[in-house]
């Protein structure tokens, strides 16, 4: 980090970059893999990482960012738990001349000079891929296709966008209807709890679309407890493709997974170095992703790293 009294303002005059990273939480397998990847990538890049876990609360993330500003880190990176309400703290970082990189989730700030770049997935596209699979699958369905949707945290970019992309895609078939949709906070426990309640209220449901694997895995427990067969009586589509999700897919309990890669660490460290070197970086860096059917999951599982 910057040596006090040396007059350097680039912050890396002792050769070592310090990054403050404000993580969302530890809500899912995706998040755990993402945290591990960022920590390993920082180490490999010789970047000193200060890391905090906000337990899915915006106020905790704002506190963490303020403490990184007070500690005069060289660069701040964070994955904003929700989209709104960041302008003030981002302005404080800007005033302190500490560059900010967004990872994984977007902010809705109008002033894009408040951050250098945003690296992460196209969540609308993920939702579309989920919906397109269902449209293709529903072609053979004799009757109505009644979907229960388990949403990620209200106000988060992946919840907003995965919902929007899916809604857009299923317009192609009027047989497909969303009969219930509720926040289950991206966790397995909530996925189970919310699915239990929604399935009781909507026994006509024959599809589950969960915004991540973990909620889908929790819902599978609720479906089995209700005496139904996940993947057969209720078709299941999820997003992420973490190991537990892929295992359930290979076992036939999930029908389709849209991949969302948590491995953003190396790209993040590269971008941080470029920003601190004063280089121009693209304002948006997209992650490359695929999708998995049950057969593809069986083939991919042995080499799956997370
Ligand atoms: O899909 C979910 C996690 O923001 C892409 O957050 C991330 C999402 C991921 O809790 O599992």
Automatic annotation (TrEMBL):
Q: What is its main location?
A: other
Q: Where are the transmembrane segments?
A: none
Q: Which SUPFAM superfamilies match?
A: Periplasmic binding protein-like I (SSF53822)
Give the CC-aspect GO terms.
Answer: cell envelope
Question: What CDD domains has UniProt attached to this entry?
Answer: PBP1_galactofuranose_YtfQ-like (cd06309)
Q: Name one GO molecular function term.
A: carbohydrate binding
Subcellular compartments: Cell envelope
**UniProt keyword terms in alphabetical order:** Signal
Domain Periplasmic binding protein, residue spans? 25-280
Please give the family membership noted in the entry. Answer: Belongs to the bacterial solute-binding protein 2 family.
Spell out the protein name for this chain: Monosaccharide ABC transporter substrate-binding protein, CUT2 family
